[in-house]
Structure formats: C-alpha cells, structure tokens
Amino acid sequence: MKYPMNKYRIFEFTDKKTGRLTIKAESTYAGKRVRGVATCHPNDAYVPETGTKLAVLRCAEKIAEKRVKRAQKCVNVAEREMVEAQRKYFKMTTYLNDAKTEYGEAVEELNEFMKEMGKN
C-alpha cells in the first residue's frame, strides 16, 4: 500500500440507520477531512482487516482525486500566466526592434547632417 496506515484514523462502529458493521478511515487534505467508508453486508463475514483496507483505499482515492483537481487548476493558472508572459515578451521584443531601428536611423541622419555641415 502506497500510503502508510498511520496516516489514517480508523473508526469501527455499527451504523445506526442500517445496523451494519462499518469501518471509517479518515485523513486530511488541504486542511479538510476526507473519509472513506466500508460497510459489511449482512450476508458477509465481518473481517476488520479487509474493511479497514477498503476504507483506507477509498479515502486514498478521494484524496488522489482532490489532488488531481487541485493540480489541474494550478496548471491552468500557469498556462494563463505563460500566455500572458509570451504576449509581453513579443510586445517587448517588437519594442526593442523598433527602438534599434529608430536608433540606427537617428545615427545615420546625424552622420549625414555632420557631413553636410563639413562641406559648407
């Protein structure tokens, strides 16, 4: 099992509504409680180890799903930021190229004017 059992709080009880033996595994993700539940069917033999493992795996699945959703949101934010950075990069590159062209034209015009002044 990928996640150690000591990361989960295990509760064993009889469900008040159904009367079934139930095991609940509880952990936290992003500061919130996440639960996984395993309930023993009346026709099945009660095996606490099996119920515990099932409850833990269900809890782990919920946590993994929440992590995927959170990671996807982070990727979406990063993509938007990347697109904005690319736009800014393109804009600044265009600005730099225009400035270099303008500088070259200004130097050329100044040199020509200085030549004309030297001829007169």
CATH class: Alpha Beta
Give the % helix. 55-70%
- Say what the CATH topology is: Double Stranded RNA Binding Domain
CATH architecture: 2-Layer Sandwich
Order of helices and strands: EEEH
State the low-pLDDT regions, or none: none
Largest sheet: 3 strands, antiparallel
Q: What would the average pLDDT be, to the nearest integer? A: 93
Query: First CA to last CA: what distance?
Result: 92 Å
**Bulk shape:** rod-shaped
Main sheet: strand order = 1-2-3
- Assign the CATH superfamily: Rv1738
Structural class: alpha+beta
Number of domains: 1
Sheet-strand content, in percent, reads 15-25%
The count of β-strands is 3
Annotate the secondary structure layout.
Elements: E1 9-14, E2 21-29, E3 32-39, H1 48-119
Antiparallel strand pairs: 1-2, 2-3
Descriptive key words:
Double Stranded RNA Binding Domain, 60% helix, single chain, alpha+beta, 3 strands, 1 helix, 120 residues
